[in-house]
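Justification of resources, computational component.

The compute hours requested in this renewal are based largely on the per-chain cost of generating structure records like the one below. Each record pairs the submitted sequence with a full structure-token output. That output is archived, and it is also reused by downstream analysis tasks.
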Amino acid sequence: MDSKDKILNAALKLFIKEGFHGTSTAKIAKEAGVSNGALFHHFKTKEDLISKLYIKTKEDYKSYLLDRMVSHKTSKSNIKQFWLNCVHWSLENMDCMTFYLMFSNSPYIDNLSKKEASRNFDFILELFQEAIDTEIIINVNLNLIINSFAASVQSFANFAKDNSDNLEENLEVAFRMWWRSIVNM
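The structure output for this chain reads:
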């Protein structure tokens, strides 16, 4: 692992544990086992570091999802597979998810970084738009559906942290609950 990755990993742990103001660059450098100079070689400011960490988190999430996308015959099956992939990423990357939830609306991450981090997520819009076009799900604003989807994923991940028994059964039930909220009846 190179020094930049060490810094990003240390920053992730410290930001979720101690917050933005409680985490100094000196503390990040020490945790990463690098000098302050090495940290500032890669990141101009703490704000730059947190923005880059935000972008990296979203890029890792997108790569995970795209690597696991399998085309199914129905929109429901495609959306379910996507939902399951999102849940599994959340469970496998709890620190990243916690960081994302803490800082996705933070003033320390500039709008340009937020736009860069959201680049190439059009496949999500396309997935839901196809289901709307074929009248499988209700025809509402895509952002409303996506926010409902994300809340469902996060809600289940929070539940699963403390309730790991019957995970597969609970995954099925949780998806069915969310699906019923958007299906076109």
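The chain has a mean pLDDT of 93. The two ends are 51 Å apart (CA to CA).
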